[in-house]
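Recall the central idea of this unit: under ordinary conditions, the amino acid sequence of a chain determines the structure it adopts. In this exercise we apply that idea directly, starting from the sequence alone.
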Amino acid sequence: MGKDASVPKASAFKPKTRAAQYVRMSTDLQTYSIANQKDAIDAYAEIMGYDIVATYEDAGKSGLRIGGRVGLQRLLADIETGRADFKTVIVYDVSRWGRFQNIDESASYEYRCQIAGVRIEYCAEQFVNDGSIGSDVLKAIKRSMAAEQSRMLSQKVFIGQCRLVRMGFWQGGIPGLGLRRLLLDKAGQPKAILAHHEYKCLQTDRVILVPGPPEEIAVVRSIFNQFVKGRKTQLEIARLLNNRGTVTDLSKAWTRESVHHIITCEKYIGHNVWGRGSCKLSRTRISNPPSQWARKDDAFEAIVEKKLFNRAQALVKSQSVLMSKEQMLTALSKLLERRGKLSRAIIDAAPECPPADRYNKRFGGLLGTYRMIGYVPRREVAFFDANKRLRAMRASMINGLLAAIDNAGGQAVYDSEENLVIINGEVTIAMAMARCHATAYGYPRWVTGVERKPAPDICVFIRMNPDNETVKDYLIAPTTEVKYLEEGMAANNGTRVDAFLFASLGPLVALAERAAVGELR
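Accordingly, the structure predicted from this sequence is:
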């Protein structure tokens, strides 16, 4: 008598193994989107007998570094703290785990999972990640290939950008005073003027620079005329513009450096120059030699006459005698002897000295430069020391908050790239130290600095006592309730604000607590 085909096999009753999935993409245009990765992982899990019980996701995040990848950070935190109720993590392939330029970094994160008893499986790779010599060799090769692909893509993007610049198209950056960005379609027809923080959304669109408002153009031309024909210094021009109430394109006061940028920028005669500096693969920004710059002369409509511009460059060159380090320090010493003190504003206002930024670059900071000439600015040193102490206090409070939330059964990670605490993967929190300052009448006031992009869900201001060494209280409020506090907080701010003052960070811990469904009655 044959077996009854209707009787299920014993293996069908075998419970599935609990597993998590990690998915990542850096842009919406990638071949392997989040949805595609999840579909592939679901099919793999069905075959292998896994039950996906948790998902860790990093959408729109680069794989070059772990900073900003909240999903991966939360995955590692759950595994290493024992919160994870799974023993396997499924990833689409090695590149989704990361394209770290140092493959040892990629291996280190996987190793941290392994020593905590959690395996990493790659469902689209042609090897089983079982720790054998063959799989380890293939995995190392795949990691190297992922890193190399990022380097090749970076180079291709750079070459493509240079090509577009030589065709006359603008490649990112602020257009500058007197200029605007015009969006063109693939046929070269104008579409719209892009406002600040507006960007193209179609790959086939292009951007060029066009003249801006007449009043801004008049300011730019006035700067060149005053410098060349009026023989005014860059500092004198900056002071004149500030006295008139004129601001830069970024709505800031004019400085010698901002005037210098206008005078020396070739885009005002229509030349498109790009690539003076680069920051490839999230590394430190470097300055490129002129031979590596991409340029297209007469790419845009000029708003300054070339003859006037060339005279300005000759004048700048004659005035910009490169001083040696010894000459710079000598000039600074004489300025100190004449003024009795030094500051960034004093240095920038002194015609005989290079700008403060140049001292910063050549000597590694103003404080170090001051020490070289024997000057100790007591107020500045105290200010920087206090800032250092407050930064350490803030870091300690963030770590304490993360631990308290963990003990309460919630989940919290700190996104160092966005400088935000993220609770339960849902709520974003910005924490800032609010130093106490005394007004001219002796009343305490706290500087908040609430402007952030992107805006967090909750703002936390740690208000210090007048000694700026101990905490007075905590303002914990939705961003919408405190966004109007640009000028800071007073001792009494009315019920609308003071209602959010607390003696501790306890409300954030309570916010993170999880309750069982049966308790919510």
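The longest strand covers residues 50-59.
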